[in-house]
């Protein structure tokens, strides 16, 4: 096996091209995210972020939207730990890089883990509820998007864990869909990231009726096949409907409503 320094030297342009979640801040504490280079450490670090085979910081295209990679990214493997967080708390996903040209929606989903164990849950069986989203804001060709705010905010995205969510173990699926090449078939780029959370508190809402990630999107959906470099007056955020879980509003980023 090549040394880690050699492997990183082989892929400098690719590694710098896109990005991944390098860390998570919950209740004021930092938790390290997953970096594919960690695979070459001995021992491999245990993280709440799911492990993925993504050394090039690549993406999932619409041709893979019905396959397992769309759930938590390429060849994902369960996170072996949890990020503890109180229901109603803000959570920040810190990315290591993101190109300004990669405009598009940022979406957050959450799924309860079967048997309350996210470390063994099958990615393709998780039933996700969309609880936060943001996308186009104004203008066109290409216009102003929440990804612009994300870049300005030190390439970080803050959302809120629903305040009435019942205690338990959950997978949060945090995703950016880049639209800079989405004007052509199979041009959209999905960057899903999954993190295990242990939600604490006295909430009563038990999630039901979620959707498998493999059923979120189709290649011809208007929010997937979309010409960013054209005159437009709106944008349809792809995926299942936003569920009204909590009475919260995430300033400048995600939207959440009361039941």
TrEMBL record:
Localization per Swiss-Prot or TrEMBL: Secreted
Keywords: Disulfide bond, Secreted, Signal
Residues annotated as signal peptide: 1-19
GO cellular component, one term: extracellular region
Keyword Secreted in annotation: yes
Residues in Auxiliary Activity family 9 catalytic domain copies: 18-231
Keyword Disulfide bond: yes
Major localization class: secreted
Cited Pfam families: AA9
Cofactors, names only: Cu(2+)
PANTHER family: ENDO-BETA-1,4-GLUCANASE D (PTHR33353:SF34), PUTATIVE (AFU_ORTHOLOGUE AFUA_1G12560)-RELATED (PTHR33353)
The protein, known as: Endoglucanase IV
Lineage of source species: Eukaryota, Fungi, Dikarya, Ascomycota, Pezizomycotina
